[in-house]
Amino acid sequence: MKKQEKPVEASPQPGKKRATSYDVAALAGVSQSAVSRVFQDGASASKAMRERVMAAADQLGYRPNAIARGLITQRSNMVAVVISKLTNLYYPEVLVQLTQRFSEQGVRVLLFALERESDTETVVEQMLQYRVDGILTAAMFSPEQLETIDNALIPVVLYNRTAPGQQASSVRCDQEEGERWLVDELVNAGHRSFGVVEGPVDSVVSVERKTGALNELRRLGITDITTVSGDFGYETGRECFAELVEKHGSPPDAVIAANDVMAIGCIDEAREALGLSVPDDISIVGFDGVGPARYSAYALTTVRQPVQRMTQSAASMLLERIENPELSPEKRAFSGIPIRGRSARLADD
Amino acid sequence: MKKQEKPVEASPQPGKKRATSYDVAALAGVSQSAVSRVFQDGASASKAMRERVMAAADQLGYRPNAIARGLITQRSNMVAVVISKLTNLYYPEVLVQLTQRFSEQGVRVLLFALERESDTETVVEQMLQYRVDGILTAAMFSPEQLETIDNALIPVVLYNRTAPGQQASSVRCDQEEGERWLVDELVNAGHRSFGVVEGPVDSVVSVERKTGALNELRRLGITDITTVSGDFGYETGRECFAELVEKHGSPPDAVIAANDVMAIGCIDEAREALGLSVPDDISIVGFDGVGPARYSAYALTTVRQPVQRMTQSAASMLLERIENPELSPEKRAFSGIPIRGRSARLADD
DNA sequence: CTCCGAATTGCATACGAATGCAATACTGCC
DNA sequence: GGCAGTATTGCATTCGTATGCAATTCGGAG
Fold first, then answer.
1. Which of A43, A134, A227, B302 registers the highest number of CB atoms within 10 A of its CB?
2. DSSP-derived 3-state class of residue A51
3. A266-309 pLDDT tens trace
4. Residue B55: CB less than 7 A from any atom in strand D
């Protein structure tokens, strides 16, 4: 078999309309069905046919129209991924990994980025109109919205969220457990007065972390607790620390921030504005295990989310449910990974 | 007119197939065309018709199928956004902003995330198959790939990239100009020996920054220059600094890192491993103006990319070209914003 | 050479909405 | 009340691919 002698390979006559499977069929002298079959995986087509069609196809620069295909197969091969902007440093990593996981499986990602987590108004409508095969969301939907999605028979996986009454599949990091570890270690090392810096009120993650920490503190009989709230950002981290000191009258023994970025803000404020030494004068801990938490200026004591496993798990959970819509909901919780950094005085053990 | 007395509003009979415009038409006793027109913006439909149709529509839980619509209108209302993972801390911001800009205009984003910038193999094929209306890419495509896209008549906007021979629209931050400012300021303040930390070789941005800096250094007659290369990440930033000192025999007067994250790595390594004081013993500068650059432990002297304006510009440039494909290519370059932080000794002026 | 089963191929139709054109309903005006 | 002009509505077709079914071809065994 010699190769094609024509050097012109993939440059269709310019100015023409996009080639369709009929054009290819006509040029190759076969039926449109044949073309369709050549471009599918499990379809039957002889070697000769395959060659004829392929030759015609790339002479015309043809490629199958995924839109038309989706219409007939009732599968868009797209999933919607919803993120909210706020959880700034952490989600990008999640997003990139999810996208790669889906890509590996031949599934495309339709991205929806919310300004705030509660901006879910139009998103549901959009997703349903585009007939996505599944939804992976790191923003909270209302029960009504979840029901709408459910009525449309579209599988959903919640990322670091759980639906209150609703039953829906989810993948999450066990925030309470992580906070318990942090609190236990801090109390164990002798800290008695605490500052708690929570995140935005419409963030489920923030609420879980805060209540997780508060419950454990109470359980251990700690009563000297001051609470302030920020927005997960660095600047508010600094402001929160200042506010904390003012409210408490003096710096507490330890500060538990709802995420790493705010913890970093607290550290900077403690050092710069109050001249405190971290962790000698005060212990400060975060949550997430983002990149900057490792910067040696901070070396945060924190709980890292096992992002790799979580995204892996979430993606395959969604894909499974797309293949088999009858699967019952499943909730997977991953333990966070305790990081003993240098931003807190902990017992040696 | 009294309202509907039926309390059941949007819950279609479960187990049924998704409602189509024909179903709605049948229930409302009108033609399918009528339904189609009610769900469009500029179509003519009487008030009565609109009401009948809408009532039937949300009784059935109907919503137009964007896939089918795309097939007939030849418009998917989707754009592809391509990012590569590497430029870790900077692109998330870009991505979120772009997505929001497009969303505002009723355009959906199909996301492609590359592991490395050179992993563009299958991406082009994917984008064309999905008939995206336009492409916004922050990864470099080969001339052949760009030609393929061009043949498909899909407008492209390159983000912080320019095509070598090819002519294509682009939005970029003027990296050379930014590096010139940094170099000028450093030399002006008396620095004479330089370390240059470049990023991954397949990153256009990194190459531009490096050559921008080197050219300006040479122009000013500086010859004591040591070059090392990393991957834009924090860890390699640290390693690069160590390598730099070893190659040079001693710490240089100043280090120019290809991005902020590596600059931060350099600072940590300088302080921790060598006990140097920044900026007293050594000046270290970065590029991008990402969040962590502002953390007061670093307070980087850097050049910030005007992300807001760039994404705004890129999005509207692409949308314009989708509306009017005849528009000739246009290249927009934005000046970076010089940030005089505390990581470098600069002249007061 | 004949016949049988398996592998290919073509035909016709379906997917769900948009739209040009023709038919019809309405509007205001004389 | 009649008429011209406009706003609505329906009909029929189109977008590009997949697929069930029937027709055809192919290969090899007897």
1. B302
2. helix
3. 999 999 999 999 899 999 999 999 999 999 999 999 999 999 99
4. no
Task: Tell me the whole-structure pTM to 2 decimals.
Answer: 0.90
- B34 to each of B20, B25, B162, how far by Cα in Å? 13, 7, 48
Give me the residue from B103, B111, B151 closest to A99, CB to CB.
B111
Nearest nucleotide to B47 (CA to C1') is D8
Checking if the pLDDT of A7 tops 60, the result is no
Under DSSP, is residue B40 helix (H, G, I), strand (E, B) or coil? coil
Q: What pLDDT does B12 receive? A: 46
Q: Where do runs of H (alpha helix) occur along A189-299? A: 204-219, 234-248, 260-274
Residues A307, A96 contacting (CB under 8 angstroms):
no
Q: Please provide residue B140's backbone torsions phi and psi, each rounded to the nearest 5 degrees.
A: -90, 135
Residues 25-84 of A with CB under 7 A from strand C: 30-34, 37, 44-46, 48-49, 68, 71-72, 74
Please, which residues bridge with residue B229 across strands? B198
Among residues A261, A149, A145, the alpha carbon closest in space to that of A205 is found at A261
Please give the protein residue whose CA is closest to the C1' of the nucleotide C14. A72
Measured distance CA(A337)–CA(B9) in Å, rounded = 46
Of A340-344, B95-99, B116-120, B298-302, which range is least confident? B116-120
- Which residues share a beta bridge with A197? A228, A257
Residue A102 has pLDDT above 70, yes or no: yes
Residues contacting residue A186 through CB under 8 Å, at least 6 positions apart: A194, A253, A254, A256, A283, A285, A344, A346
Neighbours of A340 (CB within 10 A): 13
Q: Are B266 and B239 in contact (CB under 8 A)?
A: no
Q: Is the dihedral of CA B97, B99, B103, B107 positive or negative?
A: positive
Give exposure, B26-54, as e/b (b: 16+ Cβ within 10 Å): ebbebeeebbbbbbeeeeebeeebeebbb
Contacts of A249 (CB under 8 A, 6+ apart): none
Question: Among A267, A250, A240, which Cα is nearest to A343's?
Answer: A267
Residues 6+ apart with CB under 8 A from B336: B173, B174, B175, B177, B178, B181, B287, B289, B303, B304, B305, B306
Per the CB < 8 Å rule, is A130 touching B67? yes
| pLDDT digit string, tens, across residues B279-301 | 999 999 999 999 999 999 999 99
Hey, CA dihedral for B229, B114, A205, A346, is it positive or negative?
Answer: negative
Crossing angle of helices A234-248 and A260-274, in 10° steps, is: 60
Over the stretch A229-246, which tens digit does the pLDDT of each residue have?
999 999 999 999 999 999
Q: Which of A75, A55, A59 is nearest to A67 (CA)?
A: A75
Across-strand partners of A303?
A338
Tell me the residue length of chain A. Answer: 349
What are the residues whose beta carbons fall under 8 Å from the beta carbon of A269, sequence distance 6 or more?
Answer: A237, A238, A239, A241, A242
Among A120, A76, A75, A113, smallest CA distance to A94 is for A113
- The distance in angstroms from the start CA to the end CA of chain B is 74
Two tokens at B318?
Answer: 């692409």
Q: Are B79 and B107 in contact (CB under 8 A)?
A: yes
DSSP track, B141-180:
PPHHHHHHHHHTT--EEEES---SSS--EEEEE-HHHHHH
CA distance A201 to A231: 8
Q: Which residue has the tokens 């009610």?
A: B38
